[in-house]
């Protein structure tokens, strides 16, 4: 069994992987860079490296790779699910590029990574949204991922509701 320190280290390396995945997805969206090229760039030059005087936290490379590849592979399924959660008249293509990357990564993780509790996924991506936005975007991330989580993992939320009462 992992000790408390190992669990915290894994959590922070996963948080770093999530942030890197969002950055990689954003880069792909903005530049049209190939999936394999962006993964190689991040693994060789960014994950856990010092960039412009800032030392980045070591990221769990396999988790990073799964997130980026999973979003790209599942985008045709993920995007319509996010579209349904947006305010009427809005489509994911109209959303800010970094917010789009956050929503796609969070949705992928909720839909495909049931080894991570949905509430953890939501919290992590809300934290990432706070790193980029100071307005309502973190609330948007919270609302959309929460609704997706309730639909994709109703048992997790039902069990949580019973334990509170």
What is the secondary structure topology, with strand pairs?
Layout: H1 4-31, H2 35-45, E1 50-51, E2 54-55, H3 61-85, H4 97-112, H5 118-132, H6 137-152, H7 154-163
Antiparallel strand pairs: 1-2
Would you write up a description of this structure?
With 165 residues, the protein is mostly helical. It has seven helices and two strands; from the N terminus they run ααββααααα. It has helices spanning 4-31, 35-45, 61-85, 97-112, 118-132, 137-152, 154-163; strands spanning 50-51, 54-55. It has a two-stranded antiparallel sheet. A hairpin with a 2-residue loop joins strand 1 and strand 2 (54-55). Helix 1 crosses helix 4, helix 5 runs antiparallel to helix 6 (137-152) and helix 6 (137-152) packs across helix 7 (154-163). Mean pLDDT is 85; it is low at 1-7.
């Amino acid at each position: 069994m992992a000790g408390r320190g190992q669990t915290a280290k894994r959590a922070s390396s996963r948080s770093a992987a999530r942030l890197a995945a969002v950055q990689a997805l954003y880069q792909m969206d903005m530049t049209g860079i190939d999936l394999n090229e962006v993964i190689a760039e991040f693994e060789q030059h960014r994950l856990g490296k010092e960039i412009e005087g800032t030392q980045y936290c070591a990221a769990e490379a396999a988790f990073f790779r799964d997130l980026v590849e999973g979003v790209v592979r599942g985008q045709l399924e993920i995007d319509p699910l996010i579209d349904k959660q947006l305010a009427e008249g809005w489509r994911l293509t109209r959303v800010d590029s970094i917010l789009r990357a956050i929503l796609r990564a969070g949705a992928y993780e909720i839909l495909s990574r049931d080894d991570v509790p949905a509430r953890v996924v939501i919290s992590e991506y809300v934290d990432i949204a706070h790193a980029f936005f100071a307005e309502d975007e973190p609330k948007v991330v919270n609302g959309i991922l929460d609704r997706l989580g309730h639909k994709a993992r109703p048992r997790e939320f039902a069990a949580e509701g019973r334990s509170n009462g």
